[in-house]
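hiii so my PI (J.) wants the whole complex modelled not just the main chain, which honestly fair. so below is everything: four entries, each one labled with what it is. i double checked the lines twice but i was tired so who knows lol
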Amino acid sequence: MTSKLPITDSRFERWQTETALASACPVRDVLDHVASKWTTLILICLAARPQRFAAIGRALPDISKRMLTQSLRQLQRDGLIARQVFPTKPPSVEYRLTPLGQSMLAPLGALIDWAENNHAEIRRSRSQYDAFESGSIG
Amino acid sequence: MTSKLPITDSRFERWQTETALASACPVRDVLDHVASKWTTLILICLAARPQRFAAIGRALPDISKRMLTQSLRQLQRDGLIARQVFPTKPPSVEYRLTPLGQSMLAPLGALIDWAENNHAEIRRSRSQYDAFESGSIG
DNA sequence: GAGGGAAGGTCTATATTAGAGACCGATTTC
DNA sequence: GAAATCGGTCTCTAATATAGACCTTCCCTC
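here's the output for the full assembly
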């Protein structure tokens, strides 16, 4: 709120400085894990309700079991989701958001809303780019 | 259906439905591009001020030229950044956020703030996970 | 009691993608 | 005229993702 440009305040300058430090930087450290296709999608899945392995897989039809397992482990390791095994006959495993995972839904939701609101414009931009830059002129 | 959990409103159920449609889904379509390490970091870079190719490269020391070029092209194609060539003697190229790119800073900033605020807890969770799940007990 | 299906995975083999770094053309500098 | 800068491209290799076969335990059918 200290600038005249829309969002561009000093935070971004600081983040920029921090990115130089690579692994020491929270932004990179968290974003590298969190801002990835499947983990984000899994979080969205579990936002509605806790779900079991196969249910998440069904919700994300083009994820492989391997990636699903791997992504779930990572989210669990980062403390965003919890894994709970029920001793049913074919043992069932339920994944649910932790409070930390829940707390991420707000910023993530904002990003998703942005995505929905601007999807049309992005697609417009893409077709224009494709027509010009790679098509007839290139 | 509707639940009593904190953030969990019907948006997430809708998004979950949409993810099944894969490429037709704005969430996936945008997130696949946007929620990736380098593009996010480049956006942050350009948030502070327009910058030239080499400057962005310097700000992100461990990005390769190839990835930088590729990520810039993608952001340009999506209409988030604009590329402007100046006919200086060694021609210089400046990248700047478009209004669309600017508009993404708000949700992106929220996510980054979350990352900073929760980095400590995430790291705590990770070391705990590493100690238990893969270490002495496994 | 052999076979099959469901749950929750693992493992392997292959395709895709990222990263390192050589190279390029233009221009300026020494 | 050799070296360096800028903004890339190109190739080769390393890492990562995907598809899909397979595993184990239990219940059910035949």
